Amino acid sequence: MKVGIVGLPNVGKSTLFNALTKSKVLAANYPFATIDPNVGVVNVNDLRLDVLFEIYKPERVIPTSIEFIDIAGLVQGASKGEGLGNQFLSHIREVDAICQVVRCFEDGNITHVEGSIDPLRDLEIIKIELRLADLDVIDKRIPKIEKKAKAKIKEAVLEYDALIKVRKMIEEEKHLKDLDMSEDELKMIKNFNLLSLKPMIYIANLADTDLENPESNHFYTRLIEKANTEGIQVVPVSAQVEYEIANLTKEEQLDFLEAYGLTASGLDEVIRSSYALLGLKTYFTAGVKEVRAWTFIDGMKAPQCAGIIHTDFERGFIKAETIAYDDLVEAKTPQAAKEKGKVRLEGKEYVVKDGDIMVFRFNV
Ligand SMILES: Nc1ncnc2c1ncn2[C@@H]1O[C@H](COP(=O)(O)OP(=O)(O)OP(=O)(O)O)[C@@H](O)[C@H]1O
Ligand SMILES: [Mg+2]
What we know:
Number of strands: 12
Largest sheet: 6 strands, mixed
Bound molecules: adenosine-5'-triphosphate, magnesium ion
Strand order of the largest sheet: 2-4-1-5-6-7
CATH architecture of the largest domain: 3-Layer(aba) Sandwich
Shape: flat
């Protein structure tokens, strides 16, 4: 699962990426500092792992992770080849969700490609470019299948109808959920990796002085209002502050945060929101050797979830011993949970739930 960090040039994308991934890729005060995408893996902090650690006292705890990709800045006209143009857009096609960094901080020393701070204008630029790029893809495809669709070839009719619907949706700025599309049409559309259909959150990149009270920044409040109308979540952070504290010890971090009137880093919220945005859930495996978190997609059944660990587990799946996280915590030990009848034996059709602690029985 990949999350792309997207936005205008020089708004703080690489700075945020460095903070998230504890890396040191080039983040610099000029547009197009980033050209090739940077890729990094980020652990997903989960307090439940700390609790499971206390229960199982394992030798090690392994959190789950997601991948972040820092992508080159996008400018007006990118869909027509401006800036890094289509090369840039192809990198966005590969991600499953988008974190859009929106500059809300004022700083005369840091160049803004549009010459002023205006988050709503910036959002509009990005949105238009993503939509134009999609229309381009659709309009190249439609003539290729039109004849076959008119000749009533089944596959082509399905694809043609789906493309026409989505084209209209993009043009009229509607949502996919407002469209009357069949399962098959939706599947078909997925293959095109359309940018405007990717789930998105906005990261409001604030000045350090705004952290204590973001609402005092009118750029930020306007961004929130806009996002509310779109049903998009906003996460406020200062990429610069997060970067500065990313490599400190936990204790130093707390002191540093306190100086800004904060109790926690904003990065966890960025990571958690991205995880949720992707529709991701977590199940656990737990024992004395290892407690480990595994990511699955909402709706997956037990065998598929087993397959995330090893394909043999899926192929030879028999049953899954399952305890709900809350049941385990309430019972205090796996033994007590068993005695209370809280350990369930689930079969092939079981839809795994967030927090399930699972032991897979399999035979190959
Ligand atoms: N919240 C912030 N407050 C002040 N300065 C910031 C903040 N976030 C980032 N910056 C500064 O903005 C400049 C640009 O940052 P960065 O290189 O991360 O941008 P970018 O979006 O990756 O740009 P590009 O598109 O060129 O790759 C850097 O000098 C960075 O230190
Ligand atoms: Mg960059």
